[in-house]
């Protein structure tokens, strides 16, 4: 069984998230998604609309996702890869090169992001609409 892992906030779920999850799952048999905790999001300078619990429940409902774990810090990836016997690490290419240190432990792949959509864009578009 080939285990894949990916990390992210996955707030206000959109097709960009679904596209990375579908492609990540297609690279193996079992997909683990590490979702940023609310506290770690604060460290990343992000404030998710949905709580960790809600983002976890939403991700667990997606057919490509086999397991959801919390992402609490920047340092846990090597430990996660070893703990879950991960064969493949996947992220969108906005992270290109940032996690190459994991190549000692598993395959590392950065996939093209889905253009034209982001949680930030959703929030900005809704703000603009609300002001009309
Ligand atoms: N993504 C994408 N296309 C988009 C938006 C996001 O492919 N239009 C991908 C990102 O590249 C990332 C994943 O979806 O691989 C999750 O994106 P975010 O929720 O924005 O996660 P991020 O804040 O990048 O957190 O330790 C890694 C961090 O936790 C990543």
UniProtKB/TrEMBL annotation:
The keyword Cytoplasm does not apply. GO terms for biological process: teichoic acid biosynthetic process. Residues 5-124 form the Cytidyltransferase-like domain. GO terms for cellular component: cytoplasm. InterPro entries: Archaeal_FAD_synthase, Cyt_trans-like, G3P_cytidylTrfase, Rossmann-like_a/b/a_fold. It comes from the Bacteria. Pfam families: CTP_transf_like. One of its GO terms (molecular function) is glycerol-3-phosphate cytidylyltransferase activity. The keyword Glycoprotein does not apply. Its EC number is 2.7.7.39. Keywords: Nucleotidyltransferase, Transferase. This is Glycerol-3-phosphate cytidylyltransferase. It comes from Kurthia sibirica. The lineage of its organism: Bacteria, Bacillati, Bacillota, Bacilli, Bacillales. The gene is tagD.
